[in-house]
């Protein structure tokens, strides 16, 4: 068993969960008024937490890999308006 991988997973997912929980608490500050909800806050917190945790994890490979990971995570932000609409009950 590779204990380094276990530690990596704990840190990576731990940062993600913390981001989601913070998103629930601080989503009102992160989101425009029409998209505010606990679910939308958790989605935004998870999005930011995942970007941070993947970028930090990528540093174990190389700085350029970490930057690529962070950019890849941020590109998914293009989908966030659709995700937030769905989280607030808009079927479109």
In short:
With 92 residues, the chain is mainly alpha-helical. 76% of the residues lie in helices and 0% in strands. Helix 1 packs across helix 2.
Provide key terms for this protein.
92 residues, mainly alpha, 76% helix
Describe the protein in words:
This protein has 92 residues and is mainly alpha-helical. It has four helices and no strands. It has helices at 3-30, 38-58, 63-75, 80-87. Helix 2 packs antiparallel against helix 3. The chain is elongated, with a radius of gyration of 15 Å. The N and C termini lie far apart (45 Å). The mean pLDDT is 83.
SSE string, helices as H and strands as E: HHHH
What's the pLDDT, averaged over the residues? 83
How much of the residues is beta strand, in percent? under 5%
Helix content: over 70%
Which helices and strands appear, and what pairs or packs with what?
Elements: H1 3-30, H2 38-58, H3 63-75, H4 80-87
Helix pairs in contact: 1-2, 2-3, 2-4
